[in-house]
Fold this protein.
Amino acid sequence: MTNDDFDFLCKLLKEKSGLVLTRDKAYLLESRLLPVARKHNLKTLDEMVPIVRSRPTGDLMKEIVEAMTTNESFFFRDIKPFEQFTNFVLPALLKARADKKVIRIWSAACSSGQEPYTLAMLLAEQQAKLAGWRVEILATDLSTEILEKAEAGLYSQFEVQRGLPIQYLVKYFKQQGDRWQIDAGLRGRVKFRTFNLLEDPGSLGTFDVIFCRNVLIYFDQATKGTVLGRMHRILAPDGFLYLGGAETVLGISDKFQASPDNRGIYRPVAAGAAAQKLAV
């Protein structure tokens, strides 16, 4: 692939998904896009690029974006964020939302669904405390193909072995041939929707918790700031934003501050007294 073709694809990917690729990532571009080319009976990326140039908004470009933005996911990833959710975030929200008894959670860039289903399992474990409550989990991703997999809730033996405690596998999954399917009741707790993080999320409503983990690392500084600013607008003033362990708001956005003693969790700066009350 020529440098000109590489630059062309990188520019389109940034415009459509926010993904930033440098030349040292050319191998990643080729490894992920060659299967897309072959699916269209094209032998090389050199044959594919002219088609994309002529139809940059066509189905082929959509497949390219999805191939490049579909990231690895697994249950209880990094475990600590989910321990924080159970021991810190959920108790704080149960106290703060005692009148309305409604909690909304957004799993942004959810990939194949392991993150929102992990949250659904944790909430099921707390069902006694949540009697009479409505907890909504919205999971979004740019890829329609990966969302279809997530909605089906079917995972390979390898996928359920990565991070999922055996007691949860026994309790919440049923074996279907050589795969495992998560309980229908838990699948019903998660609503999946196609959404591009470069768009305004206002139509999604407001949230008490936003999980946006291991996503911002793929964006440039300006895009990170824009995404964080939009999330700030739809996050409750006393809400919680989760970022990945290698991500931060420092030098990017002044709308969030780190939650003391809870690495990876950020609170809206303009939360006022309510946030101070919850940050215990």
Summary: The radius of gyration is 20 Å. DSSP finds twelve helices and ten strands in the chain. The longest strand covers residues 235-243. Residues 80-96 form the longest helix (17 residues).
